[in-house]
Every structure is written in structure tokens, then in C-alpha cells.
Amino acid sequence: MKSFYGTQLSNPLMLGTAQYPSPAILEQAFRDSGAGVATVSLRRESGAGQTFWQMICELGVLILPNTAGCHTVKEAVTTAHMAREVFDTKWIKLELIGHTDSLQPDVFQLVEAARILTEDGFHVFPYTTDDLIVGERLLAAGCEVLMPWGAPIGSGRGLNNEYALRAMRAEFPDVPLVVDAGIGLPSHAAQAMELGYDAVLLNTAVARAGDPAAMARAMMLAIEAGQLADLVDPIEARDMAEPSTPVIGKAFLS
Amino acid sequence: MKIVLNGEPREVCAEILSDLLVECGFSGRVATAVNEGFVPAGLRIAHKLADGDRVEVVAPMQGG
């Protein structure tokens, strides 16, 4: 498995911490899935922050703070600095939102913010689209990981453009790639791993499921299955049938 | 002095950022910004506040 800025993940599931019915269920989802990374955010302190921090520490996973909700380079850079201090990590999931309805990344500002943050010593995980040229620009800006969307955040639509994600994998064979956002079902997560992606980042599909802990486990099993399948050279699809049972030696009975 | 703390207008006695955090009961892991600029923890003790400053105090929160 590829390393993320020199760190090996214990497994390829990056799990969000928002929208769970209760903190206990959130904790159970992490325990049952064994997710290796937790995404977190910063919000105005209203008293709940310190309890949440304590719980996250007890999970014993790697922490990936985000810049969710930021619409400008300045906002995202300031948020990243605050996150580095609070969470004591160089990792930052860089989100620069460009569109209110689709939450599509503003890739122009994303590249600029990625450059500034990399120069400031951050390890940037950019939430991007599946555009190859943007991917190249992000790498040139210093990113060592790319996180293209599968579909809009929270939509659960799966991999909207498998062709583009496949092309991205082929274009950047040595770069750790993460499908971030849009996953709704374990089959979507398995598909991402079958394409050769290195990890999957998801939140809503687990947190909003009827049984989040069980869904987290289902996602992990699917990710493991997809990852294993990718490693063992799957067959090519074909148009016509090909009998799997030997034709020679069949008894003559008609 | 009148400031805006996390979006709410406040009348406070503190004139230094670190004192403001104590006065308003913030502790633990928080990060601060004044007038949209990050103020690292180590510089709070030297950061003088002015009337009308916009102060943000943020803490860990759930995120995706």
C-alpha cells in the first residue's frame, strides 16, 4: 500500500465523524470497521469541543482535519493554520467549495491554497474533481496525495464518472489516490478499490445508515474485497458467453 | 471594550487576547483568529485587542 506523506494507513478506510445519531454510535462505527483515519473539523467553541476531542483521541486513529465550508483561499489557509495548532498535525484535507448546490471544489483556488499551505509545511490532501490537469497542477503545487470526488458530498450516488477516475489512476500510477465523497453503498467503495484507488473517504453513507456501525463494517469488508480483487488481476469483460465447464467429454445424451 | 466574539457583540474587560479567553471561560484545545487573521497560541499573550475587533475561538468538531 502506498504511504500518505510517509505514513502507512492501518487500512484504506477514512471515515468522517459527522452526523452520527450519538457519540457512542460514532465510536462503535470506528471500532467495528477499524477505519484508519478520522476526518474532523473546527467550529466555534460552544462547550462541546473538548469532549469531542477526548473521544477522538481515545479512538487511536490518525486525524485528518478539514477546511469544510471554506470558499476563499484566505479562509482555507487560516482554517488550516488553526487546525494544525488544535489537532497537532500537518495533515489537512483541503476543501475549497465553489458551488453551493453541488459543493463542487473551486479548483483554481484549491491549487493556489495547496501551494501556499505546502510552502508553509502542511501535508495537503486536496478534495478535487476528477480533472487530470487540475491533478497535475496540484502535484506541481506540492501535493503528494489527490482526493477526487466520486459524486457530490452526501449524495450517495457512487462513482459518477468511472471513466475519469480510471484515467486518473492510469495518469498518476505512483500517487496515492483517494475517492472522497459521493459513496452511498459498499459496492461503490469496492468499485473504487477495484479501480486501483488507495483509499476511500466517506461519512454520510455510514453515519446516516439505519445501523451506522454495521454499515461501517460493511464498507470495510467491501474495501478489502475491492482491494484484494485489484491485486489479483481480474478478468476482462467480454460480449459473448464462454462456457466455464469443459465442452470436451460431455456425455452424448440427445 | 466592545468586541465581536464568535459572531456575537460582547462588552469585555480584557485588553489582551489571552486574558479574553480566561474572561470568557475558554480552556482546552482552541485556536484563535482576530479580524480574520490566525493568532497562534504562543502569541495570544502579546496580542492587544482593539475596540471593534472580531475574535474567533474555534475548537474540535465533527467533520467529514
Automatic annotation (TrEMBL), chain A:
<keyword id="KW-0808">Transferase</keyword>
<feature type="domain" description="Thiazole synthase ThiG">
    <location>
        <begin position="4"/>
        <end position="246"/>
    </location>
</feature>
<keyword id="KW-0784">Thiamine biosynthesis</keyword>
<comment type="pathway">
    <text>Cofactor biosynthesis; thiamine diphosphate biosynthesis.</text>
</comment>
<dbReference type="Pfam" id="PF05690">
    <property type="entry name" value="ThiG"/>
</dbReference>
<keyword id="KW-0963">Cytoplasm</keyword>
<dbReference type="GO" id="GO:1990107">
    <property type="term" value="F:thiazole synthase activity"/>
</dbReference>
<dbReference type="InterPro" id="IPR013785">
    <property type="entry name" value="Aldolase_TIM"/>
</dbReference>
<keyword id="KW-0704">Schiff base</keyword>
<dbReference type="GO" id="GO:0005737">
    <property type="term" value="C:cytoplasm"/>
</dbReference>
<comment type="function">
    <text>Catalyzes the rearrangement of 1-deoxy-D-xylulose 5-phosphate (DXP) to produce the thiazole phosphate moiety of thiamine. Sulfur is provided by the thiocarboxylate moiety of the carrier protein ThiS. In vitro, sulfur can be provided by H(2)S.</text>
</comment>
<protein>
    <recommendedName>
        <fullName>Thiazole synthase</fullName>
        <ecNumber>2.8.1.10</ecNumber>
    </recommendedName>
</protein>
<feature type="active site" description="Schiff-base intermediate with DXP">
    <location>
        <position position="93"/>
    </location>
</feature>
<dbReference type="InterPro" id="IPR008867">
    <property type="entry name" value="ThiG"/>
</dbReference>
<feature type="binding site">
    <location>
        <begin position="181"/>
        <end position="182"/>
    </location>
    <ligand>
        <name>1-deoxy-D-xylulose 5-phosphate</name>
    </ligand>
</feature>
<feature type="binding site">
    <location>
        <begin position="203"/>
        <end position="204"/>
    </location>
    <ligand>
        <name>1-deoxy-D-xylulose 5-phosphate</name>
    </ligand>
</feature>
<comment type="subunit">
    <text>Homotetramer. Forms heterodimers with either ThiH or ThiS.</text>
</comment>
<dbReference type="GO" id="GO:0009229">
    <property type="term" value="P:thiamine diphosphate biosynthetic process"/>
</dbReference>
<dbReference type="InterPro" id="IPR033983">
    <property type="entry name" value="Thiazole_synthase_ThiG"/>
</dbReference>
<feature type="binding site">
    <location>
        <position position="154"/>
    </location>
    <ligand>
        <name>1-deoxy-D-xylulose 5-phosphate</name>
    </ligand>
</feature>
<comment type="similarity">
    <text>Belongs to the ThiG family.</text>
</comment>
UniProtKB/TrEMBL annotation, chain B:
<dbReference type="InterPro" id="IPR003749">
    <property type="entry name" value="ThiS/MoaD-like"/>
</dbReference>
<dbReference type="Pfam" id="PF02597">
    <property type="entry name" value="ThiS"/>
</dbReference>
<dbReference type="InterPro" id="IPR016155">
    <property type="entry name" value="Mopterin_synth/thiamin_S_b"/>
</dbReference>
<dbReference type="InterPro" id="IPR012675">
    <property type="entry name" value="Beta-grasp_dom_sf"/>
</dbReference>
<dbReference type="InterPro" id="IPR010035">
    <property type="entry name" value="Thi_S"/>
</dbReference>
<protein>
    <submittedName>
        <fullName>Sulfur carrier protein ThiS</fullName>
    </submittedName>
</protein>
